[in-house]
């Protein structure tokens, strides 16, 4: 779902009340664990964590005016989503996350290429998401991204 918001605080205020505490906690754990250099902003209509142009002037290849996206969180129609580009681009990181997930949550992992879906907001593994957020620095993400783009 798309919410009209210009800031992360506005985004959280716009989502359903029953999801606001979970999204606030998710945001806090990501910000606490994300390596220095990423910026938080509204990105693609969601709360996003990006490599800013000050670090990576080339921006996102699909639209260089946009900073390089890395991670997003969103309140969708029937779930809360965490989008993490690194797990899409790095098989080792994906394998690590998939292997760790059952240690935190007993329900089956609901995941797409870069999207982790949480239908039960009380079962979001905050500590695991924080650890996932900490796994790549902005420069490591830029290097991984550039290597992936070159292969296309």
UniProtKB/TrEMBL annotation:
Pfam families, per the entry: DUF1801
Source organism superkingdom: Bacteria
Annotated SUPFAM superfamilies: YdhG-like
Domain YdhG-like: 19-133
Record InterPro entries: YdhG-like
Protein name per its UniProtKB record: DUF1801 domain-containing protein
Organism: Aquimarina mytili
Highest classification ranks of the organism: Bacteria, Pseudomonadati, Bacteroidota, Flavobacteriia, Flavobacteriales
